[in-house]
Amino acid sequence: MFPAQTISQGALEKVKIATRKIADTFAISGPFNIQFLIRGNDVLVIECNLRASRSIPFISKSLGLDFIDVATKVMIGQQIDDSSLPALTNPMIPSNYVGIKAPMFSWPRLRDVDPILRCEMASTGEVAGFGENVHSAFLKAMLSAGFKLPRKGILLGIQHSFRPKFLYEAEQLNSQGFKLYATPATSAWLNSNGIPASPVAWPSKENSESTLPPVKQLIKDGSIDLVINLPNNNTKFVQDNYLIRRAAVDGGISLITNLQVAKLFAEALQYSGKLDCKSLFHYRWLNSSTAA
């Protein structure tokens, strides 16, 4: 996401200081990539890679600057005019638009693989979306990655520790007219908080005497066209949650398994009817005109 939307100015200053120290200490010339872990104002360096990352083409397009050309000239010792380039002390930050880089996955082609993200990279491609605000850019990026917006019903399966953090977003989804379905405990929690949600049967219970509707059938008949599944490995329903995620992928509907993405999606969904089709060049022109 560029520019950053949720990182404090204090944390950003620490990022700049750490970046300069690393570059100076290792006498780096050319492209390099640093991954930071940020919580509040605490900043930790995860790793530094002396190579070009996939962020470089994204940032180059976002700003209209060919950083690969610049980096290549620096690496071979060629003199460059850096007067128009951003620096740590003088960053180039768009004020009229936001860019978001989103991953693409091939879960439907990977039979029986659990479509949930872990530490290792699972994406097979990336797209970028640009908009006048974070919600617009987010929805454009998701749509470009093949994400289908829900029209009817949403199935929620929220692990206990995540529920307080998702209550407001669940209210938003309900207020936007979506029919909410939920796994048994999540359904009880939603209803106890005044958010109507119909319980569904766990996949392992579908062939028993359960009177609750089965998830696979609800997906098949189009009643559910989005699954938000936010589990952890402490639940006793690990296998059932996997079967729900897999049913979403195999049924050709959208799946969200990350709390931050789910929260931003619920916030952004209300703007889905207001998306513009302006080009990136328009946003860059608008930003340069404002700066001038």
Automatic annotation (TrEMBL):
Record field: catalytic activity: hydrogencarbonate + L-glutamine + 2 ATP + H2O = carbamoyl phosphate + L-glutamate + 2 ADP + phosphate + 2 H(+); hydrogencarbonate + NH4(+) + 2 ATP = carbamoyl phosphate + 2 ADP + phosphate + 2 H(+)
Domain ATP-grasp: 13-76
GO molecular function per UniProt: ATP binding; carbamoyl-phosphate synthase (ammonia) activity; carbamoyl-phosphate synthase (glutamine-hydrolyzing) activity; metal ion binding
GO cellular component: cytoplasm
Keyword DNA repair: no
GO biological-process terms attached to the record: glutamine metabolic process; L-arginine biosynthetic process
Keywords, in A-Z order: Amino-acid biosynthesis, Arginine biosynthesis, ATP-binding, Ligase, Manganese, Metal-binding, Nucleotide-binding, Repeat
Pathway it works in: Amino-acid biosynthesis; L-arginine biosynthesis; carbamoyl phosphate from bicarbonate: step 1/1
Superkingdom of the source species: Eukaryota
Entry keyword Cell division: no
Family membership: Belongs to the CarB family.
Name the record gives this protein: Carbamoyl-phosphate synthase [ammonia], mitochondrial-like
Organism: Thamnophis sirtalis
Name of the coding gene: LOC106553688
